[in-house]
Description:
CATH architecture of the largest domain: 2-Layer Sandwich
CATH class of the largest domain: Alpha Beta
Order of helices and strands: EHEHEHEHEHEEHHHEEEEEHHEH
Number of strands: 13
Shape: globular
Number of helices: 11
CATH superfamily of the largest domain: Dihydrodipicolinate Reductase, domain 2
Structural class: alpha/beta
Helix content: 25-40%
Amino acid sequence: MGRPVRLGLVGAGRLAEVGYLPAVEVARRARIVAIADPDPDRRALLAGDERPTYPSADALLAAGGVDGIVVASPPATHENVARLATGAGLPVLIEKPPATDLAGAQRIAALDPPPRIAFNRRFSLGLALEACVPWSGSIELELRYRRFSWSPVMVRDPALLDLVPHLADLALRAGIGKVRTVAARSARPERVTITVDGDVGRAGIACATDRFHLERAVVRRADGSVVAANRAGGLLRGPLGRLRQGPHPLAASLAAQIDEFAAWCAGEPAIRLATAADGVAAMAIVGAAAESLALGGEPVEPPATGVTA
């Protein structure tokens, strides 16, 4: 298999601390060999004996010695970092959401080569959904966590931008078909529910950033029978899960994603790794949901994206 793929990580926030760095200890094909972040305290916290840190993505790229870039900085920075890294000839993996809006995601998808998008729930919650295609019916998707327990360093996006892209991507990947309408409701930024009607099936999405951790996916046929289901977390399962041996579920899913990104960096096929076009499709749903919220929950037809997978 050769030496591990050397990755540069841009962004030294909590996802880097409790996600990516533990994940590369589990990953088989990649190592994080450099980190960039403007905050000197965060750089000092995550620096390793043989892992240099840099105050900017420019500085990391100028130093060289990496085979690919993982972008885990705030969403507003993603496009610029991706453009710099792509310009340097490096493969890029961008954390979700790919951008703060659909237009930004479309510009990222127009880069050559287009970056990949880090929808890591494809490697955990979404695994049970892969065998259910094709189908016709509905899918229930739920994702929630308590943000205060996560202790984010900088980003505090509403649930719509923070969590919905994950589940929009899973709904599309599970095969709801071409999206016809999106309707959303939210009493406060920490919680949002969305109905996505496709020409094959309907997705019900619920997200919250102020509730105990839960990840749930259920696919049903038109008659209500269950095709596939997956669940993690919950009031009881969360504490019990922490007693089990092995990597944390977040680190495990990120490790699997990193290994696929490393394979892609090496010119090999990437089966589950999301494309930039997938990121655009998810952000089209997010954008339509935002418009629906502004209209009091009225269904909204998402715009044509001009990007194909």
